[in-house]
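Input record, target 12 of the design panel.
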């Protein structure tokens, strides 16, 4: 069995189809199959030129209609970095990362272009927010793939949206620009592990969407994942109790039973987005 097949089966389960030679004999698909997030880093600093080149590679990614509605902020100032970590506490591993970046959605630049060139900006609705958000997400993913291809470790940080207004104020983000995610970056201090994913039968569809067997697939996934990487703690035991078997789906259900980012919609509207 090739390494790519072994890694994909470890991630998606034993029913994962074998990869054709076109994929299994190439290095980059194998890298994707075996990728993992890293939350422990060596203290070695990263060369600024390396980070800027990775940003350039990230911005080579596709952008909706070539609008290029994504920006990257490299946090180099130690005081600013410390203030940002205070805003999103509880993740000590982020402080150990030699570098930290913030990926932003930027719909402001397009509005400026329309103002400078004359034609009115008439697409002032939900799609403006959505397009910029997706562009930022694509750039983030591309940056991570480029960084991991040279041995760097990455972990995206969605917690940056827990305090969107504070982050926006700290980084000086104007209207129609907002932080989508942070990214901790550095040389890995340990190997990490491959995170299991839902089976492809649950998430890859042919012709029409189907969830006929989803409940059973999630039950099976919970048990298979527990055998490899069991959950280390249970959320909100005071409210929901402590279970003998606590799987991935129970953890996600409890996660979304807790209010989170309830003010994000108000923040986005205050940024000038019309979400109709």
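The sequence produced for target 12 reads:
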């Amino acid at each position: 069995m090739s390494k790519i097949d072994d890694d994909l089966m470890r991630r998606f389960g034993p029913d994962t189809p074998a990869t054709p030679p076109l994929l299994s004999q190439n290095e980059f698909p194998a890298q994707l199959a075996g990728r993992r997030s890293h939350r422990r880093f060596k203290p070695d600093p990263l060369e600024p030129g390396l980070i800027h080149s990775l940003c350039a590679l990230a911005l080579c990614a596709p952008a909706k209609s070539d609008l290029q509605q994504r920006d990257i902020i490299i946090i180099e100032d130690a005081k600013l970095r410390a203030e940002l970590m205070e805003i999103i506490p509880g993740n000590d591993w982020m402080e150990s990362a030699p570098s930290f970046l913030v990926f932003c959605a930027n719909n402001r630049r397009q509005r400026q272009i329309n103002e400078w060139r004359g034609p009115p900006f008439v697409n002032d609705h939900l799609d403006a927010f959505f397009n910029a958000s997706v562009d930022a997400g694509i750039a983030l993913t591309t940056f991570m793939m480029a960084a991991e291809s040279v041995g760097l470790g990455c972990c995206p940080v969605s917690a940056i949206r827990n305090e969107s207004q504070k982050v926006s104020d700290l980084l000086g983000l104007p209207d129609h620009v907002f932080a989508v995610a942070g990214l901790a970056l550095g040389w890995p201090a340990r190997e990490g592990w491959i995170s299991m994913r839902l089976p492809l039968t649950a998430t890859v569809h042919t012709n029409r969407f189907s969830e006929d067997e989803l409940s059973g697939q999630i039950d099976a996934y919970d048990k298979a994942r527990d055998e490899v990487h069991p959950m280390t703690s249970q959320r909100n035991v005071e409210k929901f109790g402590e279970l003998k078997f606590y799987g991935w789906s129970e953890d996600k259900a409890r996660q979304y039973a807790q209010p989170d980012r309830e003010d994000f919609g108000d923040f986005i509207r205050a940024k000038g987005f019309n979400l109709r």
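The chain has a mean pLDDT of 95.
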